[in-house]
Amino acid sequence: MSDIPGLLLLVEAFRMEEFEQWDIVTGVGLTALGVAAGRALETERPDRLVSDPYAEAFVAAADPPMPVPRRLADIAELPDVARDMWTSLSSYLGVRSRFFDRFLTTAAAGGIAQVVVAAAGLDTRAFRLDWPPGVELFEIDQARVLEFKDGVLGGLGARPRCARHVVPVDLRDDWPVALRDAGFDRGRATVWLAEGLLPFLPADAERLLFDRISHLSAPGSRLAVEHLAPSVRPIIEDPEYREAGRQLGVDIVELWHFEGKEDPGRPLAAAGWDVRSVTAPEVAVQYGRQLHGLMGRTVVHSRFVTAER
Ligand SMILES: C[S@@+](CC[C@H](N)C(=O)[O-])C[C@H]1O[C@@H](n2cnc3c(N)ncnc32)[C@H](O)[C@@H]1O
Q1: What is the Cβ-side half-sphere exposure of residue 68, based on CA atoms within 13 angstroms?
Q2: Hey, what CATH topology would domain 5-308 get?
């Protein structure tokens, strides 16, 4: 008689080995905590562009290797390099979050009732944005990241403002099956978001991501992606940027994939998407904000790519 449970365990062990796992305080998971901290700081600013009432609680609940600020008062005491990193990061995240908030809510108001957030991390849009009735929102990320997030949100008694589905899967794995099993319907138009993700995917995984999204996108679907051009590389490899990463407790250069990347506009246009893009500094100016400091210099190379089918 075959030992089916044993076989399943073996398969699972291979899968764990194939795709590195992380949680909210290790590897790329820690970057999700970093951007949550940035949103917590942005939320406190009098001229805030977004308000994320849950961000501070994530930082408070985590036990990161380096102290992560959750209040503006926390950064006053930090060394110059860390203070510059956190203020410039939160300033950029205000711009980025508002741009993608508007993109998603405009799509939903226009009748797209299926939303997929790839690499959702500690994104709380399901809880903090106004969604029309009938919206189904899917959050894809690694299991331990989503478990941490749901633990904190559950502790706060937070309630989503749409039908929310968590999809714990690695984006290099067969995530379309996991998405379908969570209730995704490829016959309906979808709005997709990939924010803060592409640098962490190898080139082949990135291509596969766009192929799969295109395959799953019914006519009328939309997509928004944050893309950092390869010209950002000297900045990321600069000792100042490395040091800033160390203030968070990660080596960003180690996590970043530069090799063989192409402009996402190309595969998307080839797959029938009508692609547009705008630079992050251009969006910042529209919102009356000047990007500055380390992140300001970095996101000169950042574009918000949007597409419609
Ligand atoms: C910088 S955070 C951005 C999170 C979120 N989009 C936001 O802006 O708040 C990067 C996220 O990508 C996720 N991620 C990176 N590679 C992934 C992969 N292969 N599969 C699933 N999630 C991944 C990490 O777990 C992390 O939550």
Answers
A1: 32
A2: Rossmann fold (3.40.50)
